[in-house]
Amino acid sequence: MTISAKDKRVIRDLGKRVAEIASDPVNDQKRDMWTRLNRLERVRPLIHVQAIDWNIWEELIPADQLTTTDPFLRKQEMDLRKRIYCWEHFRDDRVVMDCAICPIAIKDDLREEDFGLRRYIDMPADASGAHAFRPVIVEDSDIEKIQTESQVRVDWEETERNYERLCDLYDGILPVQKRGQNFFWFAPMDKFSQWRGIEQMLIDLIERPEWGHEALERVTAGYMSNIERLEEQNALTPGHGNAMLGSGGYGWTDQLPQPDFLNEQRFQSPSHHRFLPSS
What is the pTM of this model? Predict the structure, then answer.
């Protein structure tokens, strides 16, 4: 797919700014402090401004501020602008990396398909406003609709096309990393309450906890099946680098992985990248 000259110029200019930020020695200092913290050494309190939800960035970087037109490149532009914004405004202890990310193309992800159950949500006109979940698990037998066997797959051809495209786009500016998922939120009760309704879920915990456990076991089985299939397809990335973990920390450590871990070739190593020199 051809990239317009305008879109290419926008991404390359933003990439140059990210590369400039990433070259600041303070990033090495922050990386060292996260590594020491994860070794349980005493360091000063490390600060991370957690900005994950989409509606936070909708306010900080509205969609109309993006200037590229290609949908794939708009995701790249947003990622670059986020890094620059955090550096210029948050000034916290996150490490700005000198690389561009090529996500592995994942299809039929069981989590994204809501484990086979469709949620019904009453929402206001403002998508970020309060909303209510309408129960889709009504009868006891409805929990059997929760799918436990994932058919998730990796589209390696699409991944490679995107990778080649990004290598050309960032040529001489940033290396490109293919990256799979390196962290998982696991909140089966949140998922179940969205299907059952929050009030009814709380009643269930009191009146028939065994049935609730059965439902949560199915959600857990679905999560594990999804992760295991991704692992089988070499589509996971270890989280021992610049991976945001949980509610406000980073995975920097020199204690993982163990020496023989990556030899099993089950993962996309975070060091797997390609750098194309300027022509």
Answer: 0.85
